[in-house]
Design a protein that fits this description.
heterodimer; A: alpha/beta; Udp-n-acetylmuramoylalanyl-d-glutamate--2,6- Diaminopimelate Ligase, Chain: A, domain 1; B: alpha+beta; 5 helices; 5 strands; 35% helix; globular
Chain lengths: 113, 141
């Protein structure tokens, strides 16, 4: 699925609408330990995390992830969003929990890594 | 082997907000050189881990990128404090990261093992009170 399709599926708010919505999402993952994500992340990944600082964007960008999803109505701070726009990384914010987002994505055919 | 490119990046201790800038620049530089996506990914992961280690654990240091026709080499040199027990530091899950680093989601004890996993060759030398040097190379073929 594309980032645009994923955004519609989970009803998320797109915080970086200028990024290319046709980017392909290859797998999904959820984890808040950045060190762990560095070891287990993958290119094209949709990564769900409650972390909102700048290092999240650095990890997503270095691993060439497709999209970062912030759950439970948590707001990513503006400097991180600016960095995301600079790096062309998609950031979505959702009211749903990480569990609910994973369930929806899984039901719609997105695999784990 | 003839060095095609050499660049150094200073990394400041405790500079969490700018952590990753050197790695991002290095990745961009290598991409421009036409390095394959797979090698680029290994270098990026190892580079970010070592840059974070400089930020979290060192008193400051330098990250150096060297490229020759056969490999990419990353050298991290810091000015201390040095690692008392390298075997322990290399153990997955062992971490001495402070509370600030842990709050940001670091300090899972994955850094050094992750560097070793991603590099073709990995070497770590450390002396307490002097500093640590980590040398990693990534084969281009």
């Amino acid at each position: 699925m594309t980032v645009k399709e994923l955004t519609e599926l989970i009803g998320a708010e797109d915080m970086t609408p200028e990024a290319d919505g046709n980017t392909e999402v290859t797998c999904g993952y959820t984890c808040d330990l950045l060190s762990w994500v560095m070891a287990h992340g993958a290119a094209g990944m949709a990564w769900i995390t409650v972390q909102t600082h700048m290092n999240v964007i650095a990890v997503a960008s270095l691993m060439e992830m497709a999209v970062v999803i912030i759950p439970e109505g948590i707001q990513m701070e503006e400097p991180s969003l600016e960095k995301a726009r600079e790096e062309g990384i998609h950031v979505l914010q959702s009211e749903k929990t990480a569990f609910e987002i994973c369930a929806i994505l899984s039901r719609n055919g997105l695999a784990g890594k | 082997m003839a060095v095609l490119l050499e660049k150094s990046f200073p990394v400041e201790a405790g500079a969490y907000t700018t952590a990753g800038e050197a790695s991002t620049t290095i990745k961009r530089t290598l991409k421009q050189l036409g390095i394959s996506a797979e090698v680029l990914r290994h270098v990026s992961v190892a580079c970010y881990e070592v840059e974070l280690n400089l930020v979290i654990h060192s008193l400051g240091g330098t990250l150096t990128l060297l490229v020759d026709p056969e490999k990419v080499t990353l050298i991290s040199r810091d000015v201390g404090p040095g690692i008392p027990d390298i075997d322990k530091a290399m153990t997955e899950g062992f971490s001495t990261a402070n509370e600030e680093a842990r709050t940001l989601g670091f300090g899972a004890g994955m850094g050094l093992p992750n560097m070793k996993r991603n590099a073709t060759e990995f070497d770590i030398q450390s002396e307490v009170g002097v500093g640590t040097t980590i040398t990693m190379s990534f084969a281009l073929q």
